[in-house]
Amino acid sequence: MGLRDDLDRFREVGDQRRQDLEEFISYGDLGGSRPDQVKIPVKIVDLPEFSYDKRSMGGVGQGQGGTPQPGQPVGPPEPGDGDEEGEPGEEGGEHEYYEMDPEEFAQELDEELGLDLEPKGKRVVEEIEGDFTDVTKVGPKGTLDFEELFKRGLKRKLAMDFDDEYIREALKIEGKGPESIFEWARSEERIPVSFAWIEEAYNEIPADERTKWSSFEEFEANVDQTTVGQRIRRDGIKEIPFRREDERYRHPEIIEKKERNVVVINIRDVSGSMREQKRELVERTLTPLDWYLTGKYDNAEFHYIAHDADAWEVEREKFFGIRSGGGTRISSAYELAAEILEEYPFSEWNRYVFAAGDSENSSNDTKDRVIPLMQEIPANLHAYVETQPGGTAINATHAEEVERALGTTGNVAVTRVTQPDDVVDAIYEILSTEDGAESDSQ
User: Fold this and answer.
1) Partners of 412 in the beta sheet?
2) Distance between CA atoms of residues 329 and 365, nearest Å
3) Could you tell me which residues are beta bridge partners of residue 43?
4) For the whole prediction, is pTM greater than 0.90?
């Protein structure tokens, strides 16, 4: 095995040492990352390289001044010379971090979960001129489409053209005047000739030639009609009857460049029942969703709402650590979310409203206020994450009520997280609901 094979093998091992993305989301240190940079621990693996024995640096026969002579004793080893012995290591293996931006994180998560969410651009940020593909009937002369003008004129030429010699010969049938020949030409032969032309042509024929053919049968037996193609090959095209209505002017297609904007409202229950383990499950679910959406959209804005019986907006850094001793009224958070979203028209912004808590809520608040508010707030996706370690408590009915009322609407996801191993499944359920809603709307 050569050095190249060794290098490839070590790189493969190093890649395997990087924490599995699911393991990182479920158990890793999410706090070590920033909103724009995800840091995943990597076990250090030293790549192979050439090393030289320091005791042989001089080589045979190349001693320097002061080199000991044969039989001369040598002093004690210098520090660092030779192999050193020491106590067994007591510290764990060193770690570095594999850093990825949110876009790479989103790609990795898509691959791992089998998702393919393609966000829509909504807000028009620029209009640019594309190819000259739009055509109108008026415009500057410099944009006149000569090719289109020629095609339309030629089409008319071919539609109007007829074998004038054939008609002139027909006018020489004994006893047939302009009226009868016009009726024969238009109704039987489908020749696009006007009565005025026939009348003028008949007047040009000398009187002694108007009896050349005794009948239609004799005329047809002796005179053949030439096709348009035959006449063009024989005579060419002398003129094309252009008309004003044939003119077409080229204009550039106006292309709207749309920016993919998203606003995310993260809502978290901070009431007294939300103890540390529940808060951690909330963080493990909502944080990767933030990274994912940041990576998917051109412009992502986030708002964080904490609530007990009342709701207030907080900075991201404080969002997951707040705890209060108050009761719970989830509708207060949705009321504040509706106010914030007034600054982000749904026609221009993709909207996500993610809420998380232990499903405990004040009596009738879910049915009377939360569900109507979720129905009134237009959003790509509403999601509720229930965090109840060990299973749902008797009075934790919020998730069930939302699921029962809105679970079939197509843009509402309800998930339950009882332990870290449930987090990735919850994220998949949320994002796959959005994936389906996106597909349905396209």
Assistant:
1) 382
2) 7
3) 95
4) no
DSSP assignment of 185-246: IIIIS-----HHHHHHHHHHS-GGGTTSBSSHHHHHHH--PPPHHHHHHHH--------GGG
User: Which of 122, 120, 146 lies closest to 135, judged by CA?
Assistant: 146
Mean pLDDT of the chain: 80
pLDDT of 31:
79
Burial 228-255, CB ≥16 within 10 A → b, else e: eeebeeeeeeeeeeeeeebbbbbeeeee
CA-CA distance, 211 to 318, in Å (whole number)? Answer: 109
Rounded distance between C-alpha atoms, residue 295 and residue 299, angstroms: 9
What span, in angstroms and rounded, lies between the C-alpha atoms of 291 and 437?
A: 20
CA angle 31, 34, 39 (to 5 degrees): 75
pLDDT in tens, 182-210: 999 888 888 888 899 999 999 999 988 88
- What the chain holds in terms of domains, given with CATH numbers, is 1-49+93-100 (no CATH), 141-250 (no CATH), 259-441 (3.40.50.410)
C-beta of residue 228 within 8 angstroms of C-beta of residue 192: no
* Percent of the chain scoring above 90 in pLDDT: 35
Q: Each residue of 13-54: pLDDT tens digit?
A: 445 545 578 888 888 888 778 888 888 876 544 555 555 555
Which token pair is 20? 């599995």
- Per-residue pLDDT of 112-135, as tens digits, reads 888 877 888 776 555 565 565 666
CB 374 within 8 A of CB 382: yes
Predicted confidence at residue 133, as pLDDT, reads 62
Over the Cα atoms of the chain, what is R_g? 43
At how many degrees (to 10) do helices 102-113 and 423-441 cross? 90
Give the residues of the chain that fall short of pLDDT 50. 10, 13-14, 17, 44-45, 59-63, 74-94, 439-442
Q: How far is CA 313 from CA 288, 336, 346, 377, 398, in A?
A: 20, 8, 21, 18, 22
Residue with tokens 């044939």: 246
| pLDDT for the residue 123 | 61
